[in-house]
Design a protein that fits this description.
Elements: H1 17-20, H2 34-44, H3 58-69, H4 75-86, H5 97-102, E1 103-105, H6 109-125, H7 133-144, E2 149-150, H8 152-156, H9 161-171
Antiparallel strand pairs: 1-2
């Protein structure tokens, strides 16, 4: 986990893409709401000593990681994640023209891995017994935004990596001919 201040660059250096790729998500944190900021101001400027209670231990975290990895994913969901990632690579045949015009570098294999792991974790949090293409779409921005590097032309036109990802998700079908649902999971998948 790391934090990055978007305005202060003195004494800090942007990580190279190869190092950013090792982070699963890139999450934008907005300013707090008025009420949240009030609580921050109130609690951090008073002589209050809070105790911290342990919620999870190391063994609990390892058990949850194993649980996430056991969540089933149908082949068509893996194919969707692969098509989404491969469509960001400007040198691949499956890359759409708008990506070639806007992207200088696309997501690598870690993008696919983290899409699937993120989708599985989301499925667990949503109380689902399997990961779907909806779960892939839900985690696509934070998983891919630091892996899809826009070019100068896109940046000058205000096209962000999130915009590229959104358009890809709009244009890519959930399933393609030849995608199959595993027999033991058929009927369990709606998308």
């Amino acid at each position: 986990m790391a934090t990055q201040n978007p305005i202060e660059q003195e004494g800090t250096y942007t990580l190279p893409e190869a190092q950013q790729d090792r982070f699963m998500f890139k999450v934008f944190v907005k300013y707090p709401t008025y009420d949240e900021e009030f609580r921050i101001a109130e609690t951090t400027t008073a002589d209050v000593h809070k105790s911290v209670d342990q919620v999870l231990g190391g063994e609990d975290i390892l058990r949850l990681q194993q649980l996430v990895r056991r969540v089933p994913v149908a082949p068509h969901v893996i194919h969707y994640a692969l098509r989404l990632v491969r469509a960001t690579r400007v040198l691949e045949d499956e890359c759409p023209e708008f990506v070639k015009e806007s992207v200088s570098w696309g997501a690598g294999p870690r993008g696919v891995q983290n899409l699937l792991l993120g989708a599985k974790a989301r499925a667990v949090l949503e109380g689902q017994t399997f990961a779907s293409t909806d779960d892939i779409r839900a985690v696509a921005r934070p998983v891919l935004r630091h892996r899809v590097i826009t070019n100068f032309g896109a940046e000058s036109a205000g096209i962000t990596s999130d915009a590229v990802i959104d358009r890809l998700m709009e244009e890519l079908p959930d399933r393609c001919e030849g995608d199959q649902i595993a027999p033991e999971m058929s009927g369990a998948f709606s998308g």
